[in-house]
Design a protein that fits this description.
Order of helices and strands: EEEEEEHHHHHHHHHHHHHHHHH
CATH topology of the largest domain: Citrate Synthase, domain 1
Pfam families: Citrate_synt
Number of helices: 17
CATH architecture of the largest domain: Orthogonal Bundle
Catalytic activity: oxaloacetate + acetyl-CoA + H2O = citrate + CoA + H(+)
Largest sheet: 3 strands, antiparallel
Protein name: Citrate synthase
InterPro entries: Citrate_synth-like_lrg_a-sub, Citrate_synth-like_sm_a-sub, Citrate_synthase, Citrate_synthase_AS, Citrate_synthase_bac-typ, Citrate_synthase_sf, Citrate_synthase_typ-I
GO cellular component, one term: cytoplasm
C-alpha cells in the first residue's frame, strides 16, 4: 500500500482545512485515509459502509463493474475449473498455491481433524429435533472452544494454524450432524479415502445398513459450490468475524458470530429464497405472468442481480454450466421445478427489461437448483454456505490478528437523540 497523493478537506469557515493522504492498493480504487480526521472533532457518516474501507487485506479482490473476483490474484474462473476446494483453502490461508507435497500434507491434516470430540455428540442431543440447522451450527461452533482449549492463544501462530485446520475440517461434520439430528438419523462419521466434498455427502446420506456410493459429478458440483463461496471480500459476515476478532475473542467464537450473521436472509439465505420463490410460482405456465409482475413491482425476483456485481456475477457462469451437468446426469431436466427455473432463466437472459437492468441470474440462483437436485433440503443451504465460507473467515481473522496496526473495532455514530436534560421526579411529571 503506497501513498498516491493528498486531498484537502476545507471547512465552511473558509479558513481551516486538513490534508488527508490518498492510499493506492495493487488493484481497485484509491482510498482517502481519514484516520487523522477524528482529531479535528469530526467523523465521516457512511451507513452500511458503502464507501468505507475498514481494513487493508491481500486475500480477495472484487470489481463489481467488470464482474471480476480474484482469490489472492487468481481469477475465480481458473480456480473453479482447475483447482479443488482444499487447494483453494491452502491458497486463501497461505497466499500461494501449494506444491504437490504441500497439497498432500494439507489435505491429510484437514482430514485428520474432521472427527468431533465424542462429548459434542451429547451436545447435539440437547436441541429440539426441529431446530433449524443454522441454530445448531451457531451453538456448536461457538462451543468448540470448550472442547479444544489447546488452540485458543490468538497471539501464538501455531495455535492460530491449528484452530484454522480444526474449523475447516469440522464444519462439514457439524453441518451433516445437524441435518441428521434434525431428521432423526443416527450420527455419522467421516470416512478415510474420500475427498472433502465426498465426505460431506457420505456423512449426509449414508446409513448403517447400506453402502453409500458417491456420484462423482455430484461431488464435483458440491466442491465447486464450496470454491465459489470460499470468500467474498469484506461482506457482512466477514466484517462481523473481523469486528469480533478485534476484541481478542477466540477464533471459534468469531466464526460462530460469522455464521449468525450469514443466517440473515439478505446474506446467506439468498439461495434458499430462490427455492421458496420457485415453490410460490408453482408451475411453468405461470412464469410469464410472474415475470410481468416483477416488471410491475408486484413480485420480487430472487437469485437475479447482485449488490456488488453490476455486470454478470463471474461465479454464475461457472455455476450455470455445473447446474446443467448435474441436471443432465440425474435426468432432471424434465422435472417441473427445474423446468420452471430454466424458464425464468431464459426470460431473464433474453428480455430487454432484465438485460438493461443487468438482472442476470447470480450464483445463488444456480447453486440453489443444484443443491435441491442433489437431494439437500432447503434448510441446509445456508449451513453449506457457512462451511464453505469458513476458510475465508478464518483467513481474514488470521490476517487481522497478525497485523501490528490492529485496533479493536469502534465505529462512530451520528447522534440524533435528545440533548442533555435533567431528571424530573415522577410526581412532578405531566
Amino acid at each position: 500500500m503506497a501513498e498516491a497523493s493528498k486531498v484537502t478537506l476545507s471547512y465552511n469557515d473558509g479558513q481551516n482545512s486538513i490534508e488527508l493522504p490518498v492510499l493506492k492498493g495493487s488493484l481497485g480504487p484509491d482510498v482517502v485515509d481519514i484516520r487523522t480526521l477524528g482529531k479535528t472533532g469530526m467523523f465521516t457518516y457512511d451507513p452500511g459502509f458503502l464507501a468505507t474501507a475498514s481494513c487493508e487485506s491481500s486475500i480477495t479482490f472484487i470489481d463489481g463493474d467488470l464482474g471480476q473476483l480474484y482469490y489472492r490474484g487468481y481469477p475465480i474462473e481458473q480456480l473453479a475449473e482447475h483447482s479443488d476446494y482444499l487447494e483453494v483453502c491452502y491458497l486463501l490461508l497461505n497466499g500461494e498455491l501449494p506444491t504437490p507435497e504441500q497439497k498432500k500434507h494439507f489435505d491429510y491434516t484437514v482430514m485428520r481433524h474432521n472427527m468431533l470430540h465424542d462429548q459434542i455428540h451429547n451436545f447435539f442431543r440437547g436441541f429440539r429435533r426441529d431446530a433449524h440447522p443454522m441454530a445448531v451450527m451457531v451453538a456448536v461452533v461457538g462451543a468448540l472452544s470448550a472442547f479444544y482449549s489447546d488452540s485458543l492463544d490468538i497471539n501464538d501462530p501455531r495455535h492460530r494454524e491449528v484452530a484454522a485446520f480444526r474449523l475447516i475440517a469440522k464444519l462439514p461434520t457439524i453441518a451433516a450432524q445437524a441435518y441428521r439430528y434434525n431428521r432423526g438419523l443416527p450420527l455419522s462419521y467421516p470416512k478415510a479415502g474420500l475427498t472433502y466434498a465426498e465426505n460431506f455427502l457420505h456423512m449426509m446420506f449414508s446409513t448403517p445398513v447400506e453402502e453409500y456410493k458417491v456420484n462423482p459429478i455430484t461431488a464435483r458440483a458440491l466442491d465447486r459450490i464450496f470454491t465459489l463461496h470460499a470468500d467474498h471480500e469484506q461482506n457482512a459476515s466477514t466484517s462481523t468475524v473481523r469486528l469480533s476478532g478485534s476484541s481478542g475473542a477466540n477464533p471459534f467464537a468469531c466464526i460462530a458470530a460469522g455464521i449468525a450473521c450469514l443466517w440473515g436472509p439478505s446474506h446467506g439465505g439468498a439461495n434458499e429464497a430462490v427455492l421458496k420463490m420457485l415453490d410460490e410460482i408453482g408451475d411453468v405456465s405461470k412464469v410469464a405472468d410472474f415475470m410481468q409482475g416483477v416488471k410491475d413491482k408486484r413480485y420480487k425476483l430472487m437469485g437475479f442481480g447482485h449488490r456488488v456485481y453490476k455486470n454478470m456475477d463471474p461465479r454464475a457462469a461457472i455455476m450455470r454450466d455445473t447446474c446443467h451437468e448435474v441436471l443432465n446426469d440425474l435426468g432432471l431436466h424434465d422435472d417441473p421445478k427445474f423446468k420452471l427455473a430454466m424458464a425464468l432463466e431464459k426470460i431473464a437472459l433474453e428480455d430487454p427489461y432484465f438485460i438493461e437492468r443487468k438482472l442476470y441470474p447470480n450464483v445463488d440462483f444456480y447453486s440453489g437448483i443444484v443443491l435441491s437436485a442433489v437431494g439437500i433440503p432447503v434448510s441446509m443451504f445456508t449451513p453449506i454456505f457457512a462451511l464453505a465460507r469458513t476458510v475465508g473467515w478464518i483467513s481474514h481473522w488470521s490476517e487481522m490478528i497478525g497485523d501490528p496496526t490492529m485496533k479493536i473495532g469502534r465505529p462512530r455514530q451520528l447522534y440524533t437523540g435528545a440533548p442533555r436534560r435533567d431528571y424530573v421526579a415522577i410526581d412532578k411529571r405531566k
